[in-house]
Write a sequence for this structure.
């Protein structure tokens, strides 16, 4: 039953389904996951679609196994993804760390729900921002993208695969329940217009190949199983040969490599968009579903004579430090709505460095942030700085 | 890598060994080295192209095997070798994947993965070196530790009952199940070769002496005493129900080849179902052999 991998056309589709289609368009041919609301629809659609495009689907026994399986599949040469939500995301941390250590390209889609713990399984939250950053144990850098619409669930999933392949690491799609379950127009471009990046393969003969010797871009070419390179890959600290090396020097070299390949390319990786920011006196910095509330709040503020604008963070990790530093020197205040009790706002404050006040609009979860709440925070912030 | 410094004829295993990583970390008197030698011979005897053989291991003493094998080899996280191997196998089905790990890794932290991989009949060869305790971390109680035995976390004696791994594997649907001690070099090699050639979930358990921890703590003597102990106590009982294959340190350690059956693998059935040729369930029920009728042949 051969099917098209890229379903070119215009659809009325929910975010989870768009994520699945984005993955297939990016070349994903292996998917392993465990059912969890509100990410289940990604797996359900994958189970239907993958056999038709020559791919493998497996529903694993838990999220520990799902994450381990996509790493194995990546080393088997496939582009691989899993999807989950908060409780499952916690279980994946162990092997996301293995993926970071072994520099394994793969994609983890976390459709966030309200926590802690089982929380509100069917309702929205943005509580896994710091878990995405620091959940995997050990020093590392991570890349996380934050879609705000079903269209972006498609586009950002393609992008997440490309980032994973380019920089050889697990990339997180930090979506949320509303974006995952919202049904909107999704345009899937022709296959030849989907930008697809594939991992670099070694060009040297096996006897000269060092699996962890980086090129000038900080990323080492990756051999996979069966190519004849006979590499050893380990979660132990390893040298450029991939051999375990139990010493401080090897540890420093390895950590430098996995950290710097992201830090040195941060300007290329980081992406954000601005809305009404040209003359803005106050900026709302938002991500995920909260961007949509923020845009409404900015429009309403303008009607009331407040020059407000929105910075929409498409990548939240790495955090756009330079942009925020510059912005904090230009506006009178920065406001951040988050469906948690203050996570990314800590980064916003750090990078603003006291150049302007930073105000959090928190929400415990279970619903999106109302534009009115953001508007009140804007007005209060401006009064204080008047 | 396979050349010796003296220019002498290399050992037949050198081709498969990362000789630049030798000496290995295993203690003298440990059974893992012997088992590893059998693995290398079995790989050569299995007839698989070497670039199509990969090893995945978890964490622990046996988990270090992957690091000495000069083939595609993956040393993963504790307990997760089987799901990692599952992904590798499904992404590249032509790879013959050996999972090599210990009793704690495969049956405590990784127990859930083991039973489900066996149920799915994932085409893997799972080698478990059972040394009756957690050797790498200094000798703690494991799901294999005999009742009453001393470990660093059961100082007076183990108050839990151990698993019978072979029985568990068979009950979960493994298509090949065998158990030997590390002294049964020929049988280990033969079983591993058969397991690698078997299409399906194969399980080979090797009872191995741990001189540093388990043996010493339970006053079983040194390397030679332990070898003698395994030699004297083991009895071969091929083709018996693995439930009867008990490990009684005061009487017999029952070894042998217990299961060797045919059953469609995960990939076989994935392809079968996705061809959409079967009628809807439950009408299709009789068309696909179930685990229950096949688990014991």
């Amino acid at each position: 039953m051969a099917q098209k991998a890229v379903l070119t056309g215009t659809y009325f589709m929910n975010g989870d389904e768009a994520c699945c289609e984005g993955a297939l368009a990016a070349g994903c041919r292996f998917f392993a996951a465990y059912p969890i609301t509100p990410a289940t629809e990604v797996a359900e659609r994958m189970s239907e679609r993958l056999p038709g495009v020559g791919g493998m689907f497996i529903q694993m026994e838990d999220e520990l196994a799902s994450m381990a399986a996509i790493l194995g599949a990546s080393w088997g040469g496939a582009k691989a993804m899993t999807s989950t939500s908060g409780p499952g995301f916690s279980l994946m941390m162990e092997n996301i760390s293995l993926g970071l250590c072994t520099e394994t390209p793969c994609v983890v889609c976390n459709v966030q729900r309200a926590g802690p713990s089982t929380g509100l399984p069917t309702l929205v939250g943005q509580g896994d921002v710091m878990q995405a950053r620091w959940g995997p144990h050990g020093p590392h850098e991570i890349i996380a993208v934050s879609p705000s619409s079903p269209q972006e669930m498609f586009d950002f999933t393609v992008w997440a695969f490309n980032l994973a392949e380019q920089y050889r690491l697990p990339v997180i799609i930090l979506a949320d329940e509303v974006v995952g379950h919202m049904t909107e127009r999704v345009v899937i471009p022709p296959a030849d217009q989907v930008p697809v990046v594939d991992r670099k393969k070694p060009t040297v003969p096996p006897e000269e190949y060092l699996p962890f010797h980086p090129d000038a871009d900080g990323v080492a070419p990756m051999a996979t199983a069966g190519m004849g390179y006979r590499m050893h890959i380990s979660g132990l600290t390893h040298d450029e040969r991939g051999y375990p090396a139990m010493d401080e020097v090897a540890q420093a070299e390895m950590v430098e490599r996995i950290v710097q390949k992201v830090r040195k390319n941060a300007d290329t990786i980081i992406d954000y968009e601005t809305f009404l920011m040209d003359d803005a006196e106050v900026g709302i910095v938002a991500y995920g579903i909260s961007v949509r509330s923020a845009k409404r709040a900015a429009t309403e503020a303008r009607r009331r004579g407040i020059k407000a604008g929105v910075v929409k963070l498409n990548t939240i990790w790495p955090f756009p430090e330079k942009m925020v530093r510059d912005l904090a020197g230009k506006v009178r205040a920065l406001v951040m709505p988050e469906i948690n009790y203050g996570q990314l706002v800590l980064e916003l404050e750090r990078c603003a460095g006291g150049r302007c006040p930073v105000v959090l609009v928190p929400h415990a979860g279970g619903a999106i942030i109302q534009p009115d709440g953001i508007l009140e925070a804007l007005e209060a912030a401006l009064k204080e700085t008047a | 890598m396979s050349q010796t410094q003296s220019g002498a004829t290399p050992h037949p295993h050198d081709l498969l060994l990362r000789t630049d990583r030798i000496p290995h970390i295993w203690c003298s008197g440990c059974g893992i080295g012997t088992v590893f030698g059998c693995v290398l011979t079995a790989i050569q005897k299995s007839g698989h192209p070497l670039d199509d053989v990969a090893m995945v291991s978890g964490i622990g003493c046996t988990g270090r095997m992957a690091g000495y094998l000069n083939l595609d080899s993956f040393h993963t996280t504790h307990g997760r070798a089987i799901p990692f191997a599952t992904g590798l196998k499904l992404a590249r089905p032509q790879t013959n994947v050996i999972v090599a790990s210990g009793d704690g890794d495969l049956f405590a932290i990784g127990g859930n993965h083991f039973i489900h991989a066996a149920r799915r009949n994932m085409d893997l060869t799972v080698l478990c070196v059972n040394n009756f305790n957690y050797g790498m971390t200094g000798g703690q109680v494991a799901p294999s530790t005999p009742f009453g035995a001393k470990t660093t976390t059961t100082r007076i004696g183990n108050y839990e009952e151990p698993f019978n791994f072979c029985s568990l594997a068979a009950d979960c649907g493994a298509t090949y199940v065998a158990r030997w001690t590390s002294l049964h070099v020929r049988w280990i090699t033969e079983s591993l070769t058969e397991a690698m050639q078997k299409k399906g979930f194969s399980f080979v358990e090797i009872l191995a002496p741990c001189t540093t921890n388990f043996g010493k703590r339970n006053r079983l003597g040194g390397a030679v005493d332990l070898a003698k102990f395994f030699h004297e106590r083991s009895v071969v009982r091929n083709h018996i129900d693995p439930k009867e294959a008990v490990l009684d340190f005061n009487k017999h350690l029952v070894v042998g080849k217990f299961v060797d059956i045919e059953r469609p693998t995960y990939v076989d059935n994935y392809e079968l179902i996705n061809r959409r040729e079967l009628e809807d369930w439950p009408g299709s029920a009789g068309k696909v052999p179930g685990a229950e009728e096949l688990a014991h042949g």
